[in-house]
Amino acid sequence: MSNSSSMPQFLLLAFADRRELQLLHFWLFLAISLAALLANGLILSAVACDHHLHTPMGFFLLNLSLTDLGCICTTVPKAMHNSLHNTTTISYMGCAAQPFFFFFFMSAEYFLLTIMCYDRYVAICKPLHYGTLLGSRACAHMAAAAWATAFLIALLHTATTFSLPLCQGNALGQFFCEIPHILKLSCSHSGYRREIGLIRVSACLVFGCFIFIVFSYVQIFRVVLRIPSQQGRHKALSTCLPHLIVVSLFITTGMFSHLKPHSISSPTLDLALSVLYSVVPPSLNPLIYSLRNQELKDALRKMMTGCFSGAITCLISSAEHSLFNPLLAQPAF
After folding, report:
1. CA separation (Å) from 194 to 4, 98, 189, 203, 237?
2. Is the per-residue pLDDT at 122 higher than 80?
């Protein structure tokens, strides 16, 4: 018997039992999701419309905003729906879609952050070769490789996990469907070992990217410390600071959520940590990059000023039309 027929739905972990707290979680998630959608949408528009941001870093920042939007749209809407309607259920197909898309977007974001680290390394350590090593074709190939690798990894993990027979109930100790919690419901030792093997391979890939990021920043700091002027050192570090903060936030929240000791584990703590690594980084990334990137701030300011001026012009023209149109419409005697 297939899993879809024997397990028609799963039960997610509720944020609270009281109705008032459930509605509070709904409004909180609504505010976070709207802020994330607005911030990432502004960055996408600014990078696409301003030619000053048509650079390798701008291109990768556009891709990063797409992954942030994907992460938010994968987990938050269902959590908002369950809190609003006082339910904890999710269909089998919905539960299969969530880990696939979440794994896909999170993996793509991590690979893109690794590529962006390479961008900073070339810009500071090999500035004369920047145009050659990071041309438009090379950037497109690297971004495509990141998305394709993330898609393959997500597909393999999801297909392997949901091919396992589940016989340990249907209650997940998480507010969204996540592969480690689904594996706890499995009763197939061979399939479980196969998925654990895939997780180890993915962990080796993640660790390899982490080593590359650390090595790149060691080289960056060595070059920066040799810059004679303090202003030059500050300018070089300021270009790396947003990326370093985003990478640190992404890695530390994910590692602490999945590698914390079992002795301090509890449903409340696990729920808070899952929100911390799945919702907070995609919401804060646009703010971190926009605060430290002067070109991005200028592009956002120009775009918002243009939109505001256009709206004012439209309102004035509408007011003039409504004021004079009745006079023009009167019949002549």
Report:
1. 21, 21, 9, 14, 43
2. yes
Tokens representing residue 16 in the block:
């609270």
* Closest CA relative to residue 232, chosen from 223, 245, 241: 223
Question: Angle CA(34)–CA(62)–CA(283) in degrees, nearest 5?
Answer: 30
Q: What pTM was computed for the model?
A: 0.84
21: Cβ–Cβ under 8 A, 6 or more apart, which residues? 15
pLDDT digits (tens, 9 = 90+) for 137-186: 999 999 999 999 999 999 999 998 888 887 777 888 788 888 888 888 88
Work out the angle between the directed axes of helices 92-125 and 189-225 (0-180°, nearest 10): 20
Q: What are phi and psi of 171, to 5 degrees?
A: -95, 125
Residue-by-residue DSSP string for 94-138: HHHHHHHHHHHHHHHHHHHHHHHHHHHHHHHH-GGGHHHHT-HHH
Q: Which tokens belong to 198?
A: 């895939």
**183 token code pair:** 């594996």
Q: How far apart are CA 233 and CA 221, in angstroms?
A: 9
Using alpha carbons only, give the angle 284, 285, 290 rounded to the nearest 5 degrees. 100
- Please give the torsion angle defined by the CA atoms of residues 257, 206, 63 and 30, in that order, rounded to the nearest 10 degrees: -10
Evaluate whether 169 touches 118 at the Cβ level (below 8 Å).
no
Alpha-helix residue ranges (DSSP H) falling in the chain: 3-6, 19-49, 56-85, 92-125, 130-133, 136-162, 179-183, 189-225, 230-259, 267-278, 280-292, 294-329
By the 8 A CB rule, do 41 and 49 touch?
no
